Amino acid sequence: MQRLTSLITAALLSAGLMSATAHAQDASAPADAPAAAQAQNFADEDLQKFADASQDISAISQDYTQRLQEAEGQEAQQDVRVEANQKMVEAVQQSGLEVDTFNSIGQAIQQDPEMMKRVQEMAASTE
User: Fold this and answer.
1) What is the predicted pLDDT for the residue at 21?
2) Pfam families from the xrefs (predicted)?
3) Alpha-carbon distance 17 to 28, whole Å?
4) Is the pTM above the cut of 0.85?
5) Could you write out the three-class secondary structure of the chain?
6) 15, 54, 117, 125: which has the fewest Cβ within 10 Å?
7) In contact, 104 and 112? CB cutoff 8 Å
């Protein structure tokens, strides 16, 4: 169970990284986006895609955390962050989700313990 929680936590941290990039690119995003995400109902298919992408993102996060620690200087660290972000975005897109949908699910499961449990069960069934 702790492993699943770590997986989801890594995914949410990664989603925040991608979200920050998306917001920097799109300053017109509504300020109440987390509230809107909480109200959405996501199909089991999308939740499964989220669980699958989360596993990939967890692995990417672990790899790039090590690289970030080894990077010397702020410019090198920023390069590592950008590369990690690109890999995470690719993982989400390869899962069949849009980054915005992934981020919305990530925000929703933070607010909905039942949805979190469903995603954890989905992640456990694919291990």
Assistant:
1) 47
2) DUF4168 (PF13767)
3) 18
4) no
5) CHHHHHHHHHHHHHHHHHHHHHHHHCCCCCCCHHHHHHHCCCCHHHHHHHHHHHHHHHHHHHHHHHHHHHCCCHHHHHHHHHHHHHHHHHHHHHHCCCHHHHHHHHHHHHHCHHHHHHHHHHHHHCC
6) 125
7) no
Residues, the chain: 127
Given a cut of 50, the residues of the chain with pLDDT beneath it are: 1-2, 20-39
Tell the residue number behind the tokens 């291990």, with chain if given.
127
User: How many distinct helices (H) and strands (E) make up the chain?
Assistant: 6, 0
Which structure tokens are listed for 34?
């987390």
Residue closest to 50 by CA, chosen among 1, 118, 119: 119
Q: Check if the beta carbon of residue 17 is closer than 8 Å to that of residue 85.
A: yes
Query: What distance in Å separates the CA atoms of residue 118 and residue 4, rounded to the nearest whole number?
Result: 11
